[in-house]
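Consider the following assembly input.
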Amino acid sequence: MPTTTALRLPSASPAPAPLLVVGSVAFDDIETPFGQGRRILGGSASYASLAASYFAPVRLVGIVGHDFSAADRERFLRRGIDLTGLQTDLSGPTFFWAGRYHDNFNRRDTLATELNVFAQFRPELPPAWRQTPLVLLANIGTDLQHHVLDQVEGRPFVVADTMNLWINLMPDLLRRLLPRVHLLVLNEEEAAQFTGEPNPWLAGERLRAMGVPSVIVKMGSHGALLLHPEGRFALPAYPVTDVRDPTGAGDAFAGALAGYLAATGSTGLPALRQGMVYATAAASFTVEAFSCERLEAAGPDGLAARHAELLRLVAV
Amino acid sequence: MPTTTALRLPSASPAPAPLLVVGSVAFDDIETPFGQGRRILGGSASYASLAASYFAPVRLVGIVGHDFSAADRERFLRRGIDLTGLQTDLSGPTFFWAGRYHDNFNRRDTLATELNVFAQFRPELPPAWRQTPLVLLANIGTDLQHHVLDQVEGRPFVVADTMNLWINLMPDLLRRLLPRVHLLVLNEEEAAQFTGEPNPWLAGERLRAMGVPSVIVKMGSHGALLLHPEGRFALPAYPVTDVRDPTGAGDAFAGALAGYLAATGSTGLPALRQGMVYATAAASFTVEAFSCERLEAAGPDGLAARHAELLRLVAV
């Protein structure tokens, strides 16, 4: 990774550990009250790996189809992301999703989901990547997340994201995933849906009781909560005032957080707190434009500036 | 005020300035999914003055009827609250409100509002109280809030609360109140309703543009935001996991905050941040029981403990 594209973290190790990101790469059609995007780059692994690339060398595992161009690949390569694990399946197009946001972004309708080549996706880790010390299971089917963990070697720290779809479709697989994961990241509604507990702190405790040591409950514009074996942490959101497209905010949050942990080589409470501040900054850029545009344009200086602003905002 | 009932604040002046609290004193019938309370002590001035009494000597201005007993008065006197300004009108009963909470407290129906002696209430400040340096206009009609400010002397720091009722009934009076107030405290929905701006930061900026230097936007279980001439601040809520009755949480918040400002003699950004942490602690006790019971039982040590816990929770 070109060092000029990474943040200079006071706490970073001289040679940051790489981060393995497994998730979806997609093209999205998105309509919001403020505009629309057609066939724009999306998918959980896209947002997560671009956000993570500000912190650590990223190894991306995913699948794309015949319509994924050299220019599309270049967006990842420009940020030093290793695409050795990005399978190309020429038998069909890339995963496609179309959605529409309403009512000041409080409601989202899915207009189309075309799995395309993603339907046959089985994430296979290149042999040299099996020992990656930090693994982010970005938002994909829980069965695929298990399949990734079946291949990893050593004892990596595993961060997992999920969504309502998998909670509905494969709750048992998700329950079995929790003891294999060190940090689960999910949003307030998903935590309530999976545990039956509307209070996010209590929902987080229930998830911890199911075997995952740490849980982050995201609450969108209301911030995020962390339950960790060493203690708890609550962080307000960055005060975004111009939301254009909320797609990918959670993926960017998870990516920046996992990238920060890889960069610092620490997964203690202080590292998770700092990582959440960077994750919040990454999410704030993501929602200010369609696709990954603002996230890519922010640069290390942009992220560092919002990190500093957030620290000032929450300091008592 | 007996010093044993007040918090020992490191930043408190040796003789804390008194705080004038003007608002309603009421009896409430309240039903929640978890129980009910009958003819329990309520009203904005009750919650606010009891919360404030942990920090500074409180001067209460309000009105009660023939049914307000010596035992009711004793609850205030026990906390050192000066009731010289509490009018007793023997011609009728005390202000009565009945309400029911539904759906995990997200919705509230008013079942009855009987103004009783409150209908004739004109808050009159005892002459010796007109110079009080800190004034809290707790939640009452905006016309009455103006009437209080017409009587104050010197240049007190004025904190004002309001609610949707007054925003609907007397928006022009509220607009004219803002330049007479130094700090407005209101919740997210009220800020959106009054300004037409759903984003709480932008709504706060609009309110500041109308002439009030500082604004706190409360977001219930999602915390509170401060916009102040010296900067901004965002604070998560205390992680309450056992809400019994949310009535009065906002009043207790405003009371503890104003009391803290009186106690420290400071209204700068650092004092407001600390005051919001105490205010959040006071609100958290308030919602854990009907009426003011937990707020009264918490004691200075209880408040100090939650203040410390909140500081640990938000420290990055």
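Chain B touches chain A at residues 104, 198-199, 201-202, 219, 222-223, 225, 231-237, 239, 241, 273-274, 277, 311-316 (CB under 8 Å). Ask yourself how this observation constrains the way the partners meet.
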